[in-house]
Amino acid sequence: MTDDVMETQDPATTPDATPSIDLLVSQMERVIRGKRPQIEMVVTCLLAGGHILMEDNPGTGKTVLARTLAQCISGGTQDGHVLFKRIQFTPDLLPMDLIGTHIFDDRNKEFVFKKGPLFCNVLLADEINRASPKVQSALLEAMAEHQVTVGDTTMMLERLFFTIATQNPIEMEGTYPLPAAQLDRFFMKINFGYVDEETELNIYREYLDIARNLVELTQVLSMQDILALQAQAGEVFVHEEIVKAVSNIVRGTRAHPDISLGASTRSGIAFIKCLRAWALIKGRTFVIEDDVRDITRAVLEHRLIYRNKEGRQKALEGIIIKETERLAKLKLYGR
Hints:
Helicase, Ruva Protein, domain 3, 14 helices, ATPase_AAA-3, P-loop_NTPase, CbbQ/NirQ/NorQ/GpvN, MoxR family ATPase
């Protein structure tokens, strides 16, 4: 193990984030059963300072997961400001329904701006692909720059602004594919999936308790706690060879014959941020080779456009295998 790695593990300089993260995950598992990997991915995106997109069929628990996370970190209101807001995306939604609009104040005889639901800390964009691309694009500036522009005025969003978007599979009726530019703003995309048979049976037996748990969930981490964890994630050590692996994977997607649109430089930056946050969730202050394999698909898959179905199944996997095998031979940490 290198001296740099050893230095990042010094408890005197790096507070242990594990208890706080475990507390958040365990609190969420009171409601979301059998989905710890998905919970960890969502928390990874939160600590990386990004946004996450969850896709699956209706009724798999995507919306409940978002509400659960928000309830665990919001605590309702703070200084009179509601920290969690939910938008149900529908075909008739307008951009002003997200950003806000000017209304006439009859008392003062002037127009005042009424903020929309984007002005929050945790935003649930539910069934985002049921709204038109024009409405979806209203999120672009907010997700990329934490600000919105109305006319000639630019307004900053909250320091912590985390979007959890859910979408139904694009094959379903009444859905629109998200623009590539917006997909690129999501640090991760995960498929929620159904639980296993035993977990599903337990959910049926205990659904009343689960619903009660959702109502009774209490705040376990404050906004300042989350910001502190984000700062710690930014300090996680990334070996130069792992940075090179990220670059090789990103550039490999651009050169692969089965991929017509590869990953961007922005996706590589998001990849490294997520690697740091993932390592922190796993109780480490440094990124290891296995982390690359664990999260590459979640970070990059949704950003790629494939030439054929066969390429979708094999192209990225081949790139991942090649690079993780290279890292394994290097034995970065003496393993």
